[in-house]
Amino acid sequence: MYISFAIFFLLDQYRPTRKMERNKLGWIIFSLTVLFVYLVWLNSRAGILSFFLASLFFIGYNFTGRKRVLGFGSLLVFLIVLFIVPFSQSRFVEAPKKVLLSEADFSSGDPNVYPLLTRIKVYQCDLELLKWPEIVYGYGTGDFRDELQKCFASNGFDGPLSENMDSHNEYFAQLHRHGIIGLGLFLALLIVPFRYSLKYNDALLGAFIILFASTALFENVFSAQKGVTFFALFCPLLYLRAKQNFLIRQDTVNSENQ
Q: What pTM was estimated for this model as a whole?
């Protein structure tokens, strides 16, 4: 997520033009290369999906005409190259297919399959914890982890239990912590800045929110200090930047009209 955001920041600052300086183009190519190598090495399904969704918004909202076509074409090439790498293909195509067809099990020892099967068990307990009246008020900031571990134990999910796993989904985590009230506040933290990104015509702020919203589907992004700090610092900064740029553009248009 952090590398993806850096990519969007560079693309926003060094937006391609006919007279683009070579050093700016070099930074963009370098950052894209780092992203590609990192994602291939890490094989992060969540990371690639989040980057892809944010890229669709960033390119579609930030560019027009030939630049938009070039952007979508580059994204397509990126995905094609990524998926033809042998070990990426086994992780992104073959492993999910085995899980969907119920042809995979833990005994196979396949590292591409194990995380998917584990997440299914975690999500099963995530759903089981959504019951009355806790769905309204939640279990509490610390108690919900204990309740999740109890669910793992009662269902015989030894893997998640031994690894003391969390919800692996920030939306479920907010419901478990503080119920519908907590989920509503979390959604507000995402929706309000995203609306401002549309209001101020700022694709970078919108891409930042999409990165967090999509990553939150697979990780408890606010359970770690780095996630909370990253969002709490960058979201206001990006909002102020978007508002300032919007006002500058408005002043420029007004001065030209005069």
A: 0.83
216, exposed or middle or buried, with CB in 10 Å at 0-12, 13-18, 19+? buried
Distance from C-alpha of 216 to C-alpha of 241, rounded to nearest angstrom: 24
Task: Decide: 169 and 215 in contact? Cβ < 8 Å.
Answer: no
More confident: 223 or 237? 237
Domain residue limits, the chain: 1-104, 113-250
Whole-angstrom Cα distance, residue 48 to residue 41? 12
Closest to 98 in 3D by CA, of 77, 127, 120: 120
By C-alpha distance, which of 120, 200, 205, 204 is closest to 168?
120
Chain-centre distance for alpha carbon 81: 21
Phi and psi at residue 18, to the nearest 5°: -65, -30
Confidence class of residue 214 from pLDDT cuts 50, 70 and 90?
A: very high
